[in-house]
Known about the structure:
- 2 copies of one chain form a homodimer.
- By secondary structure, chain A is α+β, with helices and mostly antiparallel strands.
- Chain A has 8 helices and 8 strands; from the N terminus they run αααββαααββαβββαβ.
- Among the domains of chain A are: about 5-65, Arc Repressor Mutant, subunit A, CATH 1.10.10; about 145-220, Ferrous iron transport protein A (FeoA) (SH3 type barrels), CATH 2.30.30.90.
- In chain A, α2 (about 30-35) packs across α3 (about 40-50).
- In chain A, about 35% of the residues are buried.
- The interface of A and B includes residues 108, 112 and 120 of A.
Amino acid sequence: MMNLTIAEENYIKSIYKLEEEGQEAVSTNALAGELETKPASVTDMAKKLKEKKLISYEKYQGINLTPDGKKAALNIIRRHRLWECFLVDKLSFSWEEVHELAEELEHVRSEKLINRLSEFLGNPQIDPHGDPIPDAQGKMGKPRPQTPLDKARSKRLEVVAVSDKSTALLEFLNAKGIRLGTQLDVIERYEFDNSIELKIRNQPAFTISEQVSKNIMVKPI
Amino acid sequence: MMNLTIAEENYIKSIYKLEEEGQEAVSTNALAGELETKPASVTDMAKKLKEKKLISYEKYQGINLTPDGKKAALNIIRRHRLWECFLVDKLSFSWEEVHELAEELEHVRSEKLINRLSEFLGNPQIDPHGDPIPDAQGKMGKPRPQTPLDKARSKRLEVVAVSDKSTALLEFLNAKGIRLGTQLDVIERYEFDNSIELKIRNQPAFTISEQVSKNIMVKPI
DNA sequence: AATAAAGTTTAGGTAAATCTAAATAAATAA
DNA sequence: TTATTTATTTAGATTTACCTAAACTTTATT
């Protein structure tokens, strides 16, 4: 496998993420948004990644990972999620703190390190946010059936994952008492702004915005 | 504390090392050698680090760390050595494999991470090469009394550290059976090239070059 | 002390990853 | 279908961390 720079790895990871979220071809704009950079920068990098045969890309036609690109993406995701497990399981970090740290640790590229880390952790299958961890061959369990909260139909739900890992969101959820496995009751859905009123066990009800509800993945209970 | 780039951190670390080795003022050339870069690059970086008040530097006069620079250096060294402990103690890496990995891990800058890692490891005082680990305040135990093998006078010696951490050297030592705590008998010192003939317990004797013997730190036994 | 050798700095350049502003293509609306 | 809006690309700069080659200091040698 080729040697990628940190910037290249971050692009690959983001392209993978956007493809997963259902984008047929990932647009320059969407990728710029995801990476908090400018479209012009994305175009530059697209040329480079195409050169390295990690993506297919034609001017104005958007971006897709090649099989090689996908393999690279899964490897980066494996590293990221294993480090998250380490931070939570061994160093007692909480759920919402680990994403940015893992974002840095994931760029230490060593097969041996990551395989030993996995072993040390007992070869975990899912990370602290509920996402599956690809194995050394890049095989990853199907993410469990889940719906974003804004689309869920049932009244009684369980939180199975959070798709946006920004500290801001995770801290907000933490403050509200929402974490993996938390059970939620939907009190009301307000059409005018798609906000949702929720209740957890015996705590007072509270309201979350559509923006937030899109990022909370739930399953009926 | 200021935010340093990886390159800046590596310079700081190398300046610290050369000062420790006794250089009054660290020369451009020595630093270039240590970092495997060119003197002109060192001059460039020296200006930047002076700007940040991490070193004192005057044209042609060499480099020294300021108190701030030293604090930064000790912090980087702390991270490096704790990761080495982690790799050896928890992931069963061997002595000679960990240096380059720690070289990458050390650049993940997070007080919290490193303090938790230290705690997780039982707040170790020395790393797998026998070097002391600075504490969170940057206080570091005195390195134990030790002499480079090429300067040692006794015949019977114990290996307490290895100062050059290049994989090449560490692998060589490993192959010869030389590790921390190994006891050596000096059979002969050859003046013409300063090579040394050694023996370990009941193994056959072998010869090492001056270059190698300079990097093996020993104490009389 | 004069000169040669060694060490250091400057000047000018390169590659990676960004950016802004302007140009161009594609999608949408009138 | 033409015009307008939106998306994308190009052109040209910028910053960081390097580099080489030439100029300049310092140190060592004769």
